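Severity: low
Component: inverse-folding endpoint
Summary: output formatting inconsistent between runs
Steps to reproduce: submit the following structure tokens with default settings.
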């Protein structure tokens, strides 16, 4: 066990995975978490463990997502063995389904380019007749689709529960109900102090900012740049149904319990995490067009949640140059990347392994280029 202590600000999917990875690598870890008052991105995560089409504008992100999927089975087994919490990972492959011929052709071009540039991300385009061999319930609105055998899905909330249980099992100091407002750096001894809104404070040798939307205000205090905005995702869930959907799709997926999760939207509405009837109607109509049998299913719940998003939609992972030992991590894909955050990012930020190869593309400094413009696919 290291004699140093690392504080992770944020106990959501990203922070908990990094904290657990650092802990299992031998670091003393403290997690400062807002608790139930936080804008938990995991609540709005659709639960896909997905690489297909990711990284179209950043090949390193495609390979990062691909490699994360390979690590997921180890994390699933480790959490079950350690905590008896099953994150529900299934990786039978996943389908993207299109309603428009032009979208299907664009999808084929994108997947071909990513696989050519990155490698190891196989896919197959299918017409409706072939799709029905795997998804017999699809409707006539579906004109084509793609299949990636690497894709799958998991339960975001059970994953978060498992990570927190694992943290406590291994002896991490998890403190909930604190809202960190200030980060102080003492360059003389290289230490950090996290100070909460109610003026409690915690000192450590390293600090990781994984506070989701809160990173936008904390990053500059340790010389980092994190232009993070919120995006709202609305999600619907049906009553439990007999199994009919063996594969997750980009429009809906059937959970292990039988309910069908339908999602999700991506809306720029500030910090409003509510629901709206127009978006619920759009999601429900799209789901019924995809699988007409869902017209007979009852919706039992709809909710909204906020997720952090950078201007180009890709993550930021960076150590501060002016405050060595301070790191920032933010990602829109806390489920897909969970195992990589645990097994790769956690040890690196704990100082127990080298910076992962090619990570220079993920620094927040890329957004400081005044001549650059950014867009994302979410």
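Observed output (run 2 of 3):
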């Amino acid at each position: 066990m290291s004699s140093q202590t690392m504080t992770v600000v944020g106990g959501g999917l990203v922070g908990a995975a990094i904290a657990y990875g650092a802990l299992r690598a031998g670091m003393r870890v403290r997690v400062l978490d807002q608790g139930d008052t936080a804008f938990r991105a995991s609540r709005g995560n659709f639960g896909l463990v997905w690489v297909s089409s990711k990284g179209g504008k950043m090949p390193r992100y495609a390979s990062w997502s691909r490699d994360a999927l390979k690590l997921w089975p180890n994390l699933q087994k480790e959490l079950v063995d350690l905590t008896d919490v099953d994150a529900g990972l299934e990786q039978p492959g996943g389908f993207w389904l299109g309603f428009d011929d032009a979208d299907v052709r664009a999808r084929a071009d994108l997947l071909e380019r990513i696989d050519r540039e990155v490698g190891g991300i196989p896919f197959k385009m299918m017409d409706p007749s072939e799709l029905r061999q795997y998804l017999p319930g699809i409707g006539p609105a579906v004109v084509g689709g793609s299949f990636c055998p690497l894709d799958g899905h998991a339960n975001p909330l059970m994953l978060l529960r498992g990570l927190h249980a694992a943290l406590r099992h291994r002896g991490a100091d998890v403190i909930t109900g604190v809202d960190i407002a200030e980060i102080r750096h003492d360059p003389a001894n290289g230490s950090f102090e996290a100070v909460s809104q109610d003026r409690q404070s915690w000192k450590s040798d390293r600090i990781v900012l994984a506070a989701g939307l809160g990173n936008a205000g904390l990053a500059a205090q340790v010389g980092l740049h994190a232009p993070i905005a919120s995006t709202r995702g609305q999600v619907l869930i049906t009553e439990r149904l007999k199994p009919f959907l063996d594969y997750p799709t980009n429009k809906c997926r059937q959970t292990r319990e039988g309910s069908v999760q339908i999602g999700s939207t991506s809306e720029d509405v500030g910090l409003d995490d509510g629901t709206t009837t127009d978006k619920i109607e759009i999601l429900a109509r799209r789901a019924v067009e995809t699988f007409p049998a869902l017209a007979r299913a009852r919706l039992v719940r709809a909710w909204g949640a906020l997720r952090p998003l950078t201007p180009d939609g890709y993550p930021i992972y960076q150590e501060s140059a002016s405050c060595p030992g301070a790191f920032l991590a933010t990602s829109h894909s806390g489920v897909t990347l969970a195992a990589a955050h645990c097994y790769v990012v956690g040890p690196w930020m704990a100082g127990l392994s080298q910076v992962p190869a090619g990570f220079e593309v993920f620094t927040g400094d890329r957004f400081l280029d005044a001549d650059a413009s950014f867009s994302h696919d979410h």
